[in-house]
Amino acid sequence: MTTDDENNLWNTVDRLRRWLDSTNRQTPKEALLLRMLKLSEEVGEVAEAVIGASGQNPRKGVSHTWKDVESELCDVALTALVALGTLTPDVRGTLTAHVAKVAERSLKPLDSTGQPQDSTERQDGAQVSTAVITTVSSNSEHTFTKHPRDSITLLAGLGVEGDTHAGVTVQHRSRVAQDPTQPNLRQVHLIHEELFDEVAGHGHAVRPGDLGENITTRGIDLLALPTGTLLRLGEGGALLEITGLRNPCLQIDAFQDGLLKQVVGHDPETGEVVRRAGVMSVVREGGVVRPGDTIHVKLPDGPHVPLERV
Predict the structure, then answer these.
(1) Fewer CB under 10 Å: which end of the chain, C or N?
(2) What is the pLDDT of residues 117-150, one digit of tens each?
(3) 0.85 exceeded by the pTM?
(4) Which fold has domain 117-298?
(5) CA 152 from chain center: how many Å?
């Protein structure tokens, strides 16, 4: 499948969803429920086609072909994608990331010859990881949130191409106000998607990019990584170096009232501030990053230094 074919597929899925929305007479909740139930109908038609193609109905005999089965399976897939598009605007990214997680869980990584890799450590010393990128986002304007993209390009020493926070020196306005000549240690912002699951339990609906991160991850404890940790994104892709913690600010409460206390608090035993709104990094090697890319972690040598706010 070419890039144009791929884009046409996702555009068609989105057009079909919007067409259904335009003719919908139900509430959004009812429409979502009906689209989920439609899947059961389509699966039933697959079963009917299989019975017909194999001639298992003594009254009808062979009433379908295996080509009919293929068509019915395609209807199931298309119906599922449209239903998924009703839940999330980033159908492509969500599906890609999920497929990557299934592959990481079920399939062994491949070595340089394309053979299954038995070791849990790669030749470059990085640990083989089940961590995955679920969403990539950027924004050319100084607003709180960033917009999910099909891909982003990381530029060595700068950050995300076209993003407002890319640069050799600080770009965050609060840092610029303090000293515009400071080195930019906040070129790329990462947040673990598990955080969104946690805050949802407290009534906050947060989606990838909403908190201003460039890369949303799953399956990696970002906050526990030491300073200087290297993250290889994809196979032979971009390389990030973790510099520190994001310092959550009042803009988070302006985005959703009460959300700030869910992402920053105090350790009940030590009283120290606990920051949970992701980590900051700089780009050591550039490259294109997409949802579904795996994340390989290489810890720094020597004593590990816990992350501090940057």
Answers:
(1) N
(2) 544 454 455 554 568 999 999 999 999 999 999 9
(3) no
(4) M1 Pyruvate Kinase; Domain 3 (2.40.33)
(5) 12
